[in-house]
């Protein structure tokens, strides 16, 4: 025991009980704040976890195994139905009611349809504008929204079912195993995209 009643090896430090000189306390707190701000800085975040490119993001939305193919098919059919009713009927009617211009209604609805695919990057936006124009042309030429819905759903089935099966062989994965991580090279580093064994 020491002369102050504490065992020599278990005596608390002056810093632990708040008795350190103010200059030392400010130094330790400022260094902690510096470490904290550095860990949350944009540079630290960008180097720690690079952003996936749009192609990798879209790939992660696609079915990865046989069990997920039914969800891809359901998503394709739902998109064909809902998006055609919204972007070929409801939205053009709303814009036409506001502007009184059929050209503005058709053009604005197609552009909005394309911009909502921004998660696919610029190529996805451009491709969606082209597809939106094609679907709108089909609807206006046939006068049937059902035909536009069917064509849209078939196109999405191609993207979300046919291509994953034919190109990536996702039907070989049963869906019981954890997906592997696929490294995708980017300009700032590498990011990960989900893949299943054998996919």
Q: How many separate helices?
A: 7
Tally of discrete structural domains: 2
Helical content, roughly?
Answer: 55-70%
Approximate strand percentage: 5-15%
Please give the largest β-sheet: 2 strands, antiparallel
What structural class do you assign from the helix and strand content? mainly alpha
Q: Strand-and-helix sequence, N→C?
A: HHHHHHHEE
Counting DSSP E segments of at least 2 residues, the number of strands comes to 2
Please state how the strands of the largest beta sheet are arranged side by side: 1-2
Mean pLDDT: 75
Shape: elongated
End-to-end C-alpha gap: 68 Å
Ranges with pLDDT <50 over ≥5 residues? Answer: 27-51, 191-199
Radius of gyration: 29 Å
Topology:
Blueprint: H1 22-39, H2 42-48, H3 54-61, H4 66-99, H5 102-115, H6 121-142, H7 145-166, E1 180-185, E2 190-195
Antiparallel strand pairs: 1-2
Helix pairs in contact: 4-5, 4-7, 5-6, 6-7
Overview of this protein structure:
- A two-stranded antiparallel sheet has the order 1-2.
- With 199 residues, it is mainly α.
- The chain folds into two domains: 1-43, no CATH class; 54-195, no CATH class.
- The protein has helices at residues 22-39, 42-48, 54-61, 66-99, 102-115, 121-142, 145-166; strands at residues 180-185, 190-195.
- α4 (66-99) runs antiparallel to α5 (102-115) and α4 (66-99) packs antiparallel against α7 (145-166).
- A hairpin with a 4-residue loop joins β1 and β2.
- The protein is elongated.
- The model is unreliable at 27-51 and 191-199 (pLDDT under 50).
């Amino acid at each position: 025991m020491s002369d102050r009643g504490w065992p020599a090896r278990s005596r608390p430090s002056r810093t632990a009980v708040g008795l350190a000189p103010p200059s030392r306390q400010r130094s330790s707190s400022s260094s902690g704040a510096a470490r904290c701000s550095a860990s949350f800085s944009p540079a630290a975040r960008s180097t720690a976890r690079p952003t996936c490119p749009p192609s990798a993001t879209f790939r992660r939305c696609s079915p990865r195994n046989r069990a997920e193919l039914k969800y891809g098919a359901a998503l394709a059919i739902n998109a064909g139905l809902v998006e055609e009713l919204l972007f070929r009927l409801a939205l053009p009617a709303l814009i036409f009611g506001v502007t009184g211009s059929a050209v503005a209604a058709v053009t604005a609805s197609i552009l909005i349809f394309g911009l909502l695919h921004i998660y696919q990057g610029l190529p996805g936006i451009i491709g969606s504008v082209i597809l939106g124009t094609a679907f709108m042309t089909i609807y206006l030429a046939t006068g049937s929204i059902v035909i536009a819905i069917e064509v849209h759903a078939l196109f999405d089935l191609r993207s979300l079912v046919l291509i994953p099966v034919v190109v990536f062989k996702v039907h070989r994965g049963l869906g019981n195993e954890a997906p592997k991580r696929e490294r995708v090279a980017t300009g700032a580093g590498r990011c990960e995209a989900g893949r299943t064994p054998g996919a």
